[in-house]
Structures are given as C-alpha cells and as structure tokens.
Amino acid sequence: xxxxxxxxxxxxxxxxxxxxxxxxxxxxxxxxxxxxxxxxxxxxxxxxxxxxxxxxxxxxxxxxxxxxxxxxxxxxxxxxxxxxxxxxxxxxxxxxxxxxxxxxxxxxxxxxxxxxxxxxxxxxxxxxxxxxxxxxxxxxxxxxxxxxxxxxxxxxxxxxxxxxxxxxxxxxxxxxxxxxxxxxxxxxxxxxxxxxxxxxxxxxxxxxxxxxxxxxxxxxxxxxxxxxxxxxxxxxxxxxxxxxxxxxxxxxxxxxxxxxxxxxxxxxxxxxxxxxxxxxxxxxxxxxxxxxxxxxxxxxxxxxxxxxxxxxxxxxxxxxxxxxxxxxxxxxxxxxxxxxxxxxxxxxxxxxxxxxxxxxxxxxxxxxxxxxxxxxxxxxxxxxxxxxxxxxxxxxxxxxxxxxxxxxxxxxxxxxxxxxxxxxxxxxxxxxxxxxxxxxxxxxxxxxxxxxxxxxxxxxxxxxxxxxxxxxxxxxxxxxxxxxxxxxxxxxxxxxx
Length: 497
Fold this sequence. Notes:
Layout: H1 10-31, H2 37-46, H3 59-71, H4 75-100, H5 103-116, H6 130-150, H7 154-168, H8 174-185, H9 189-195, H10 200-221, H11 223-233, H12 242-254, H13 258-270, H14 284-308, H15 315-318, H16 322-333, H17 339-365, H18 380-391, E1 399-402, H19 405-415, E2 420-422, H20 426-438, E3 445-449, H21 456-468, E4 474-481, E5 489-496
Parallel strand pairs: 1-2, 1-3
Antiparallel strand pairs: 3-5, 4-5
Helix pairs in contact: 1-4, 2-3, 2-19, 3-4, 4-5, 4-6, 5-13, 5-17, 6-7, 7-10, 8-14, 12-14, 13-16, 14-16, 20-21
C-alpha cells in the first residue's frame, strides 16, 4: 500500500523531488565542463545585456545574465538556471495535484509525469532551456489559477497575473496555456465572474506593466521578428491537404500523452473495485473545469497552427499543457485503481526514472555503446593544444573564425580568448577574409570547419578566396577521441593563413 511507503508528508515528498533534480544537476556538472547546444547560445548572449531577442522570449537570457554577474561567465552560470527552472516546475506540479489529491497520490502523479512524458522527464535533463522555463511558468500559472478558484483574494490575483507575465516572457507558446484557461473559464458562471470583475484589473495592470516593454520592443523590430515567425511556421502556398495536415498536428498534440494514458488504463483494468474511502480532494465543479481546459488545450495549438499553415510544431511547443491533460486523466482513473496497484505503479515509475538516469550516465561515460556521442563530450582542451602545437603560437593570439556556435562558445569558455568569431555561410566568411586583408590584422588567423568539414565544394571556394587575396593557407585535419571514448573520434578541418 502507498500508505506503507510513508509518502504522506509534503515536506518528505518535495525533498525527494528536489533530490531528483539535484542528482541530475550533479551528473551534469561531473560529466563535463563544456556546453551543449542551447547552453552555448546562452553563453554567447550572456556576454552583453540584451533587452530582447526577436527569435526567443527574453526571460531565460535575463536570468542567465543576472546569475553570470554573480557567479561569473562560466558553464555553472548557464547550467544551474535549467535546474532551478526544473525544480520550480516539479514543485508546482506537485502543488497542483495536491489541490485535488492526498500527498501520496500527488507524489505518484509527479513521478508518473517524469516517467511517461518524455518532455518532462528524459528530454528535459541536459537539453532544453527556454522550454524548461516555460514549463515552470505554466505549472505556476495553473496552480495559482486553482488557488483563485478556491479563494479570489488580491494576493492570488497578483500571483496568477505575475505567473502569466513571466510565462509570456519565457516562451511564445505559453499563449496555448493562457488560451485554454481563458476559454474554459467562459464555460462556467463562477469562473466567468473571476475574469470579469474589478480585481481582474490588478492582473491586467501587472501583466501589462511587466510585458509591454519587451513586446513593444519586439514590434519595433518589424521585419526581423516576422522573418523568424515565417521561418518557424514555414508558410506554404499552392495545393495543401488540410485533412492530412490536421490529423498530423492532432496526433502531435496528444502523442506524448499516450504512455501516461496507456499506463492508467492498464492499471484500471487490472484493479478490482475498491471499497476503501477515497483520499482525493476533487470538487466536481473543479474537475469539470479541468476537463474543459484539457479539451481546449489540445485544440488550441492545432487550430492556431492551421490558421497560419505552419509545419514546425513540435512536442516541446505543445508540452506546456500536457500536465493538465495528464492530471485530468489521473483524476478520472486514480480512485478506480486499488491502493495495492497504486503502490506497484509508483514502483514502476521509480524504476523507469532510474533507467532514464542510467541511460544518461552510459551516454556520457560509455559513449561507445551509443550510436551518437553527446556534444558535451567533444575534447575541446585537446583541440586547443593541437592548434597551438600546429601553429607554434598561443591560442589567444590566433584569430579564430568558426562555423559552429557550440565550438565557438566552448573554445571561448576554456581559453577566455577574445579573438573568436562565428560565421554562418560563405558570404559571411568572405566578409571576414576581406576584413582581415583590408585592415592588416596582426597575427595568424584560422578557419575552423565543423558544419562544412564534409563539404569539399565549400573548402574549394575557401581556398580560391585565400589565393585571390594572396593568403598562404594550410589545411589541417585535427582529430582526437571523445571524452570517455576508446574508439570514436571527433574531427575538424582547419585552414591557417
């Protein structure tokens, strides 16, 4: 029985949840001092204060910049933000479930999310930045909405509106959650009264005060922000199979929830009817509202993307509402599953989460058994030493131009060199060559190719350009085994001139 496992204490349950986050944080810090995809982007952006970004909502960057001012510009400053956001997300998930259920069942629900919805469990660790933050804001927003249903105080209105404002600054897909809550609230009289009353002005004022500076800035960016939206949406013209497209997006909306629903259904049919008194706290009107929020949350993304005909909608963008749908399903099944089977469910979820952790461990410390090596395993220090040896010069004195943002960020992180730049394409590289030539930049310069290392046409054009500007270029291939690997090698192509 769950009661025998002694998960009745909220403090004890939350301590285990935070221990889960701390374990992953420790693994990340121990495994590598280097940066992954999104971390490298944040490291580059954190060097200078950016009021906004036309490509991403700015809150994550602001937090990273603030922490970097305290801890310094190093990998810890970037990495720790993700795990603070993850802790916040899981805390509000547990608290939201606690509104409906006992401590034991709320703990069971939190573990179920981590084990069955990959965006919340497996993927979120070591990956994602803005998505983790928007998950945290979404869970906080939902929890304070439930608090409003219970007690419509000024404090709850303020906290609800604050979570909305922070969510709108964390990632643009937060609009899916707000739309679901707003339209579901119109269905019932008591929730309509929550929206259309004087206290709501507190929320509107708070949201406007916090969000308006960034969104006014975004509007002034004009073409840059609209170009990014077009790229993300991949607008289509001509013949278009709307039925097929609608089905594709509908499946994309609900697919991550299949494992959660399937486990609930299996244990429901395995369970015998229980005569025990339910520990759940489920006011019927709140449960009905939850069902409407779930339905609308599944429809909103599909309808929104159908309107703009976008084709790059991913599970990460839709996951802001998946925990609400999961809670709705959990509320329906949990009291129909015997306490003994609930105990087995919790044990299975523990095992699944442990397996996820072990997969992460082997991916990092035994990369040879995986088909793809993690990017944080790239041996950057050894690469720097080989570059210095090949050029007989200190790395900081070499002007580095690279086509890979992750390599740029990590080389700068390790060497503290101020002479590292990223280029995007050959046109950008040509501009760099001309700058080096026209301004007589002192010292050696080097082109590092990773994205274009298997592109002989690009390398041929690069060589021709060097000859045209009378640069003597030397092509070198640098190889070194990945961290903890016995067989797999990472290689890059360099051109010194």
